[in-house]
Amino acid sequence: MLNFIARRLLQLIPTLFFVSVLIFSLQQLLPGDPATIMAGEERDPEVIAQIRHQYRLDQPIPVQYIYWVKGVVSGDLGESMRIHVPVRDLVLEKLPVTAQLAGMAIIIALVIGVGAGIVSAVKKNSAWDYAANGLALWGISTPNFWLGIMLIFLFSVKLEWLPASGYVPLTEDWKASLAATIMPAFVLGNSIAAVLMRHTRSAMLQVLDSDYVRTARAKGLSERTVIFKHAMRNALTPVITLGALELGTLLSGTVLTEQIFTIPGFGKLIVDSVFNRDYAVVQGVVLVTATMYITLNLIADVAYILVNPRLRES
Q1: 2-27 and 61-73 helices cross at what angle (nearest 10)?
Q2: Could you give the CA distance from residue 33 to residue 234 in angstroms, rounded to a whole number?
Q3: Phi, psi (deg, nearest 5) at residue 86
Q4: Are 55 and 49 in contact (CB under 8 A)?
Q5: Which residues, at least 6 apart from 181, have a Cβ–Cβ distance to it below 8 Å?
Q6: Which carries the bigger pLDDT value, residue 173 or residue 255?
Q7: C-beta atoms surrounding 32 within 10 Å
């Protein structure tokens, strides 16, 4: 196990290097000149030249990349060209908001999706199976923006149970924070649950038809033990992969949902920085997002081994 983790960590180094080069290279393709935008309407040539020098925009691209990598290695992601705030502070401010929203969404998705998938596979061709498949079809087909608006209309306008928008940090008031994020979390978890349900059902059906499951039943084990101890553990591998990727997508920013519910999360930060040509923020945010994806893939690989001990020998 430790050797496996060590090998995977060593593989992250070249991966992060190529990701950083790709991020910095693609950044140069963004249209517009950040120095000209920061100079304002007058666009004084002396001011533009000063801005270029201050942010090293007058240096060759390889030199800019070296300075940027040196800062990243030391924990400095640069400074926002627009609001003159360290990018690290912006990330630390916005990421916990999206992390809370993503965490709640993935929990909702796992509970609904995996649970419905297991029931659908065990009760194949029954009313439970048809209901679960109908639920999955509804989740995949329902647009997030429409569902969000409908939830606001029902629970905020009509019933007045939940706030329609805004965000309250968990450290200030955990009840108000959960109340403010439960609807957007359900909107995000709804579509993911539908995908998880289909994958879980397919994996469970394949496992339930395997020889070792029939052997377990022939030994007189209870159906509950067969399903949860033998079948489900072996069917979780594709679910772990999908769950890790979906969590990475949520952490990278849920722009539309955050916009509907006015949540100041990671997605809004990314969109604003792109529109404002704020190079440092875009580079820092995308690098953090890529690192989270890579880290989640590593966690998924370790989870494979924990769930299925037979993989430890491979």
Answers
A1: 140
A2: 53
A3: -55, 135
A4: no
A5: 100, 101, 104, 167, 263
A6: 173
A7: 10
Q: Which residues of 86-117 are buried (b: 16+ CB within 10 A; e: fewer)?
A: ebbebbeebbebbbbbbebbbebbbebbbebb
Interaxial angle between packed helices 87-122 and 127-141, expressed in degrees from 0 to 180 and rounded to the nearest 10:
150
- For residues 205 and 121, the answer to whether their CB atoms sit within 8 Å is yes
- CA neighbor of 245 nearest in space, from 286, 296, 181, 309: 296
d(CA 157, CA 163): 9
What is residue 86's DSSP assignment? B
- The CATH H-level superfamily of 98-269 is MetI-like (1.10.3720.10)
Give the highest mean pLDDT range of 6-10, 50-54, 176-180, 236-240: 176-180
CA–CA separation, 44 and 129 (whole Å): 68
In this prediction, residue 33 carries a pLDDT of 67
> pTM (2 decimals)?
0.79
- C-alpha distances (whole Å) from 71 to each of 77, 142, 289 are 6, 43, 17
Predicted confidence (pLDDT) at residue 42 exceeds the cutoff of 80: no
Residues 148-159 have a mean pLDDT of 90
Instruction: State the CB neighbour count (10 A cutoff) for residue 234.
Output: 17
Measured CA to CA in angstroms, residue 26 lies from 43, 54, 175 at distances of 26, 22, 42
pLDDT digits (tens, 9 = 90+) for 212-230: 788 888 888 887 888 877 7
Residues facing residue 86 across a β-bridge = 79
Confidence at residue 155, expressed as pLDDT on a 0 to 100 scale: 92
- Two structure tokens written together for 302: 């370790």
Torsion of CA 189, 124, 208, 141, to 10 degrees: -30
Give me the amino acid identity at 287: L
> Which range among 23-32, 45-54, 100-109 shows the weakest confidence by mean pLDDT?
23-32
Instruction: Answer yes or no: are the C-beta atoms of 27 and 283 closer than 8 Å.
Output: yes
